[in-house]
Amino acid sequence: MPSKSKLIWNTVGVAVGMVVAFGAGRMLAISNDEHEIRDFISRWNQAYTGLDAVALASMETADFELIDRFGHWIKSEGPEFNERLWSMTFRDIYHGRPGPARSIESIRFMAPDVAIVQARANHPDGVTLDDGTRIPPFWEINTYTLIRTTSGWRVALLNIHNQINPGDEGVGQLVPKAGAKH
User: What is the largest CA-CA distance in the chain?
Assistant: First the structure.
């Protein structure tokens, strides 16, 4: 009969082995999930830069919400609404010229089936509006809330944040440094 000490160490060894195996399995799952999300954003970029409203709408949940760069909170009325939204955007706002692709800055898993993706898009030449107003070069961060569905990952919420290069701020736009004393 093994000693009590040996039984305890065997039990600890088995427990540690199970924890390591579970952790390695979860890390592999996260790695696969991250690969799926990177692939999803790549397909999103293809549809977006290809001005493909049908493909974009198919990559969104039926209750998709968009907060655009102007702060408009647009709540979907279903897949057909999403398709009309992108079609109108590409026709009336982009005038058939695609915006830049997004490059992933970070992926955070909030739960196994929920991920937050932050992606950057650069507008190095700026933008000229219909009225001739010129917006100087800028970049934006798009925050995607992705939900895993039975059909794969889908965008439930897209929030677009315009960004200003440090030093290019206008009146009232300068954000003080966190460590600055007042």
Answer: 89
pLDDT single digits (tens) 143-177: 999 999 999 999 999 999 887 666 666 665 555 66
Question: For 50-94, where are the alpha helices, taking DSSP H only?
Answer: 53-58, 79-88
Q: Identify whether the C-beta of residue 115 lies closer than 8 Å to the C-beta of residue 109.
A: yes
Instruction: Say which residues have a Cβ less than 8 Å from residue 42's Cβ, sequence separation at least 6.
Output: none
**Parallel, antiparallel, or unpaired for β 152-163 and 103-111?**
unpaired
Domains and CATH numbers, the chain: 4-163 (3.10.450.50)
One DSSP character per residue, 98-140 reads --PPPEEEEEEEEETTEEEEEEEEEETT-EE-TTSPEEPSEEE
pTM value > 0.90: no
End-to-end CA distance of the chain: 73
Nearest residue to 37 (alpha-carbon basis) of 132, 120, 119:
119
Give the pLDDT score at 73: 94
DSSP state of 78: S
Q: How far is 123 from 45, CA to CA, in rounded Å?
A: 15
- Residue 75 identity: K
Over residues 14-69, the pLDDT tens digits come to 655 555 555 545 444 556 899 999 999 999 999 999 999 999 999 999 999 999 88
